[in-house]
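EI: anyone free to look at a 170-residue chain?
SC: sure, send it
EI:
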Amino acid sequence: MKAVAVVGYSNSGKTTLISRLADCLEGRGLSVAMVKNTSHAQIDRPDTDTALLMKPGRTVAMLSDGEGSGEAMILWGGRRTLDEILPMIRADVVLVEGGRHLGGMPRILTLRPGQDFSASGIPADLAPENIIGAYGTGLVPGVRVYAPEDLDALADTVLREVADLPIEIR
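SC: here you go
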C-alpha cells in the first residue's frame, strides 16, 4: 500500500484533487482509501443520533446492512494517529488530505491560482523536503507543477515515487 498526503493552505483544492486523483487511480483498477485530517474539534455533528452515543473515550461503530453499499464507520471518542489507522485500511493507495504535521510522508502540494513560491520558497510547515509534485497553477522552484489536465501524469508520479508502506510517519 502506498500513502501520500495532499497538503496546502485553506481553499487550495485539496479535496478536489483527492477526489479527482482517486477517480483516476480507480480507473486504473487500483483500490483507493482516503483519510481526511480536519482542524474541527468535533467530526460528527452535535444534532445527530450518533452524537447521542458519543462521549469522550467512547468508540461507536456503525454498520449499514440495508440496501445499497453496506457501509461501515468507526468513530473513536479520542484522538487517533495515522499510524494507528493505516493498519486497518485495505487499499492499494491511501490519499491523506491535510496533515501538514505528518513528517516523513510524501506529499503533493496544492496551489491557489497563481500562487508563487519562487521568491520565498516553500514554507517549512508544508515540509518541502517531502514534496513529490504540486497541483494547480503557480510557481514552485524545483518541483514539477501539474495542471488539472495533467492528472494522469500526477498519478504516474504517485505510483512511481511513493514507496510502499511501512514508512515512518512522525
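EI: The mean pLDDT is 85.
SC: 👍
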